[in-house]
From TrEMBL:
Protein name: Beta-xylanase
Presence of keyword Nucleus: no
Assigned keywords, A-Z: Carbohydrate metabolism, Glycosidase, Hydrolase, Polysaccharide degradation, Signal, Xylan degradation
Region feature (Disordered): 335-366
Coiled-coil boundaries: none
Top EC group: hydrolase
Signal peptide: 1-23
Catalysed reactions, as listed in the record: Endohydrolysis of (1->4)-beta-D-xylosidic linkages in xylans
Keyword Chloroplast among record annotations: no
Family: Belongs to the glycosyl hydrolase 10 (cellulase F) family.
Organism: Micromonospora jinlongensis
């Protein structure tokens, strides 16, 4: 989703939430100069952003809680209900009741939903915690596929992978059962998520990545840069931003947000809370987001202090009795003072142009396909690159002969015919047209040993 769409979505959300908004007598759409919003969501929407909160499903029966939720926020993250242990408690048996309840509550009131989270080393169901290797890889990819498919069209952004980098000075990956399936597990998860829900923004999400000078921040930055350079489908980076005395807000936070945005991804503040809820620090965080055109929005990790996972730190915007704290006033003022990103964005837009391009003639220049393989004991992931020749192509077909014993289990960004032996692959709706000399990537996962794969390519 481009910024224009985020803005449209937030305005649509605002319009749907119209009853309360109109009652408050506020403008539904930004004008120049923008009218001051009277709630967090309305004010953020006027700046083309959203303002969200984590929601615990069991609190939806608490009217004091839902009164604030429904009044103030236009984005919702399920605090625990979409995690792996909640959605697939037994292998192959999916459980969506608690998550659906939150999604329905939000969407029926015009709020959007961030999905959290498809793959994480923590909060795994017991059956998954004890898995490893290719069985775990397949189970993880199946989980990503099933859950993203269930919520397709209902979730605007997914935290596809959560907290995969190590704390400390290494700047490398965190050890986990998922990491031990191969370093490419993160990109495999992103590809599976894209295939399951091509319309959702796909985010990498982590904590202690706020300080630009920290090794962990740089490690994530390097991964995102690598993903963008290789066409791995990543759209956004989530900064949890749990600020406390051990991990305080730092003034280079804005540099962090803008540096990631410069890689061509959106940035989102996904789990904000601040020990003590300093109004000045909350204001700085909001100002930093508003200063970065690709900072789409801010989510606080809970509504009242009593709702916080760190309740004793009183880190949120509302007291336990539901009244607004000074930090709330600071955030609202910062939102109302903030700038609206200019349209179109400085990064290349991905919206379709107003005049659709004329369909190129059949690809007389043909195409070539190359494959790179990441092999582990008992399985592999093949990433296939289709490159158009001297003229643009409208579609492609790739043939790959798999050696005996190799069986495809999962694929992304391509239609498949055959799982063993001679397999044939064709483009999906969104990656058939490739410009002259340009390329598109897709892939599959298989059991067995890849050996040397020699793909053929024909263009249409
Ligand atoms: O639902 C059970 C309840 O039946 C039981 O009686 C109770 C006893 O402890 O536990 C309840 O589950 C707890 C759940 O929160 C709901 O309250 C879990 O034990 C507890 O582990 C779980 O903690 C959550 C934590 O993630 C798990 O890692 C927090 O609510 C949630 O705020 C927190 O959120 C994470 C983000 O997902 C990722 N970033 C960090 C953030 C804070 O830790």
């Amino acid at each position: 989703m481009t910024r224009t769409k985020w803005k449209a979505a937030s305005r649509a959300a605002l319009a749907l939430a119209g009853a309360g908004a109109l009652a408050a007598g506020m403008a539904l759409f930004a004008t120049a100069p923008a009218a001051a919003g009277t709630t967090l969501g309305a004010s953020a929407a006027e700046k083309g952003r959203y303002f969200g909160t984590a929601v615990a499903g069991f609190k939806l029966s608490d009217s004091a809680y839902t009164t604030i939720l429904n009044r103030e926020f236009n984005m919702v993250t399920a605090e625990n209900e979409m995690k792996m242990n909640a959605t697939e408690p037994q292998q192959g048996q999916f459980s969506y009741g608690a998550a659906d309840q939150i999604v329905n509550h939000a969407r029926s009131r015009g709020m959007s939903v961030r999905g959290h989270t498809l793959a994480w080393h923590s909060q795994q169901p017991g059956w998954m915690e004890s898995m490893s290797g290719s069985a775990l890889r397949s189970a993880m990819l199946n989980h990503v596929t099933q859950v993203a498919t269930h919520f397709r069209g209902q979730v605007v952004a997914w935290d596809v992978v959560n907290e995969a980098f190590a704390d400390g000075s290494s700047g490398g990956r965190r050890d986990s059962n998922l990491q031990r399936t191969g370093n490419d597990w993160i990109e495999a998860a992103f590809r599976a998520a894209r295939a399951a829900d091509p319309g959702a923004k796909l985010c990498y999400n982590d904590y202690n990545t706020d300080n630009w000078t920290h090794a962990k921040t740089q490690g994530v930055y390097n991964m995102v840069r690598d993903f963008k350079s290789r066409g791995v489908p990543i759209d956004c980076v989530g900064f949890q931003s749990h600020f406390n005395n051990d991990s305080p807000y730092v003034s280079n936070y804005r540099t962090t947000l803008s540096s990631f945005a410069a890689l061509g991804v959106d940035v989102q503040i996904t789990e904000l809370d601040i020990q003590g809820a300093s109004a000045a620090t909350y204001r700085s965080v909001v100002e930093d987001c508003l200063a970065v055109p690709r900072c789409n929005g801010i989510t606080v990790w809970g509504i009242r202090d009593s709702d916080s996972w760190r309740a004793s730190q009183t880190p949120l915007l509302f007291n336990s009795n539901g009244s607004k704290k000074p930090a709330y006033d600071a955030v609202l003022a910062a939102l109302n003072n903030g700038t609206t990103p200019t349209d179109p964005p400085t990064d290349p837009p991905t919206d379709p142009p107003t005049d659709p391009p004329t369909t190129p003639p059949p690809g007389q220049g043909g195409c070539t396909a190359t494959v790179s393989v990441n092999q582990w004991t008992g399985g592999f992931v093949a990433t296939v690159k289709v490159t158009a020749g001297s003229s643009a192509i409208n579609g492609w077909t790739v043939g790959i002969a798999l050696p005996s014993g190799a069986t495809v289990t999962n694929a992304w960004n391509a239609n498949r015919s055959g799982s063993t032996g001679s397999t044939n692959w064709t483009n999906v709706a969104y990656n058939g047209q490739v410009g002259a000399g340009q390329f598109t990537e897709w892939g599959f996962q298989a059991n067995g040993t890849a050996g040397t794969l020699t793909p053929t390519c024909s263009a249409s």
